[in-house]
């Protein structure tokens, strides 16, 4: 029997150990393009993206390109994204595609083919997905991820205040929706070592979450650091004992230091140092 691809969770753990756990989001907002002296067009998008990948591709564990900022330029924007995925991989960074997909199971398998099948042009190490059509609707993506050594990050407790009305809603059995999603993730990660491949997105902005069991044996993506007001020092309060599984994510907080390569590297290094100090 031939061994399958190395699971995402194992690859992520190694990258976090070697490079530190920081994830830098590639979010080419029109306002950032302007601040960098670039036009809000495909050439500006390509220049911005290449600069970030070249500056940080050998420094950070994970890049999280935000698909919408590429999609807004149509097929030529997607081509820039494909190139970025390839160039980031050459530099050893993992790609978490932030496309927040979620649909009925039969359509979910098409999304899974687009992002999680090894021979797809947009094959990513992991994908953000929304479980709000029911966790079971994500099954084709879970299966495709397993087959291809990829992973998922499921929206659990998001960093924005509006998320609470759905995620903290309490079900008939007394459990919140978010707690239910975390339970499904723990089941999908059961028995995996050193870390499961199915993560939750849990905002670093949320304060004490001790009411939730975050011990899902999988990674916890923590956006909200930097522009949304959270800092690495908040991580122990939010994540408690699970803080070692946290992948802190920063987009604008790093990107606003560009286009100077040295300044981008220094900004990412500062966040990484603060994370190391906070997490130990
Ligand atoms: O899934 C995400 O990445 C995500 C989930 C969440 O709860 N909150 C959140 O801000 N994000 C994403 O994380 C990034 C945050 O960007 P900054 O606020 O610029 O660091 C954006 O790409 C958001 O879409």
Describe this protein with a few key phrases.
single chain, 280 residues, alpha/beta, TIM Barrel, 8 strands, binds orotidine-5'-monophosphate
Q: Number of DSSP helices?
A: 12
According to CATH, the fold-level topology is TIM Barrel
The overall average pLDDT, rounded, is 97
Beta content comes to 5-15%
Associated small molecules:
orotidine-5'-monophosphate
Largest sheet: 8 strands, parallel, barrel
Order of helices and strands: HEHHEHHEHEHEHHEEHEHH
- Span from first to last CA? 41 Å
Low-confidence runs:
none
- Count of individual beta strands: 8
CATH superfamily: Aldolase class I
EC number: 4.1.1.23
Keywords: Decarboxylase, Lyase, Pyrimidine biosynthesis
Protein name: Orotidine 5'-phosphate decarboxylase
Catalytic activity: orotidine 5'-phosphate + H(+) = UMP + CO2
Question: Could you describe the 3D structure shown?
Answer:
Its EC number is 4.1.1.23. Pathway: Pyrimidine metabolism; UMP biosynthesis via de novo pathway; UMP from orotate: step 2/2. This protein is an alpha/beta fold. The protein has 12 helices and 8 strands. It has an 8-stranded parallel beta barrel, surrounded by 7 helices. α10 links the parallel β7 and β8. α3 packs parallel to α5, α3 packs across α12 and α6 packs parallel to α7. The longest helix is centred in the last third of the chain and has 19 residues. Bound molecules: orotidine-5'-monophosphate (OMP). The site of orotidine-5'-monophosphate (OMP) has 21 residues, from β8 and α11. The site of orotidine-5'-monophosphate has 21 residues, from β8 and α11.
């Amino acid at each position: 029997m031939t061994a399958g691809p190395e699971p995402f969770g194992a690859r992520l753990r190694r990258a976090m150990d070697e490079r530190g756990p920081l994830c830098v989001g590639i979010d080419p907002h029109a306002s950032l393009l302007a601040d960098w002296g670039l036009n809000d067009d495909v050439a500006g998008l390509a220049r911005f993206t290449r600069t970030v990948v070249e500056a940080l591709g050998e420094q950070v564990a994970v890049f999280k390109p935000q698909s919408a900022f590429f999609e807004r330029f149509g097929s030529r924007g997607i081509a820039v994204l494909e190139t970025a995925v390839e160039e980031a991989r050459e530099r050893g960074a993992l790609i978490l595609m932030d496309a927040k997909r979620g649909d009925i199971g039969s359509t979910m398998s098409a999304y899974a083919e687009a992002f999680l099948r090894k021979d797809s042009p947009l094959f990513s190490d992991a994908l953000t997905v929304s479980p709000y059509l029911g966790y079971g609707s994500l099954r084709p993506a879970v299966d495709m991820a397993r087959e291809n050594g990829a992973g998922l990050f499921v929206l659990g407790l998001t960093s924005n205040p509006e998320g609470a009305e759905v995620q903290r809603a309490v079900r008939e059995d007394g459990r919140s929706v978010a707690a239910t999603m975390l339970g499904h993730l723990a089941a999908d990660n059961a028995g995996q070592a050193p870390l499961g491949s199915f993560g939750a997105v849990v905002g670093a902005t949320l304060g004490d979450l001790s009411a939730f069991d975050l011990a899902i044996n999988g990674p916890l993506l923590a956006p909200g650091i930097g522009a949304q007001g959270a800092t690495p020092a908040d991580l122990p309060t939010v994540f408690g004992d699970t803080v070692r599984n946290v992948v802190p994510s920063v987009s604008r907080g790093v990107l606003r230091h560009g286009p100077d390569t040295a300044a981008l590297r220094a900004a990412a290094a500062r966040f990484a140092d603060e994370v190391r100090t906070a997490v130990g």
